[in-house]
Write a structure and sequence with these properties.
CATH superfamily of the largest domain: Ribonuclease H-like superfamily/Ribonuclease H
Number of strands: 7
Number of helices: 9
Order of helices and strands: HHHHEEEEHEHEHHHE
Structural class: alpha/beta
CATH class of the largest domain: Alpha Beta
Strand order of the largest sheet: 4-3-2-5-6
Strand content: 5-15%
Low-confidence stretches: 77-89
Radius of gyration: 20 Å
Distance between the termini: 57 Å
Length: about 280
Amino acid sequence: MSQIYRAIGTSKQNLHQRVQRELLQLEEKEQLHKIVEQIREDHPEMGAKLLYEKLSPHTMGRDRFYSWYRSSGYMVLPKKNWRRTTDSSGVIRFSNLVNELELTGLNQVWVSDITYYEIGDRFYYLTFIMDQFSRKIKGYHASQSMHTEDTTIPALEMALKDLGEGEKPIIHSDGGGQYYSKSFLNLTRNRLTNSMGRSAYENPYAERLNRTIKNSYLKGYAPEDFRKLQLSLTRAVRMYNEGKPHLGLKGRTPAVFEKEYKENKLMFNKPRKTVNPI
């Protein structure tokens, strides 16, 4: 192998580092697709320059970001569809395991997503993991970057603390890079079963949760900086889990529903399909 490395003018270490950089760039591009699409719903006319300043991507400089932005179909043009048309060649995909699945209990399906929250001239990122049966948020995290180690990893580590012996939920998400990165897959291995949708329409419960936390809680709390956002997010999750009744839970909050379900499963033994959010 050493002869091969010398023949191509590199070393094993340099080749490994280059592959890692390329993988990180691929992951970040996938992450950026989802976030840019969310941003465009709130800021239809926001162009590449402002997006670059607000997003501050770690693996792309300004020129490379502009090139990616154009090739992904995000140019703001009159009467044009801004949604991306590029495929995801080289990106890991898992099958959608939750479509039409009938839920019968807790920790059967967890849904997860990442959204952005804007304060002043900065974007921050919120990650949630929710039990689809009980609607209880199991894990969450606020971060200043889209890195896997700052988003899905801490949220999942929190959620896993609530997992009982022998339980192995499906973890369902979109195709963002944080959900197929090596570090995330190492954490899910043997403990969760990975599932992915190809669009927001295939992860409706997580999308609904994003909107609820942002619009019904955080905007009212109006955090002024990142530290206050972290505190506000913790408060919002507590209020959602313990203070928000759900019609789909017979008027109970997620926390009360889980408690009563664990005490007497026969009270809630009717299967529910996963196709429509509450």
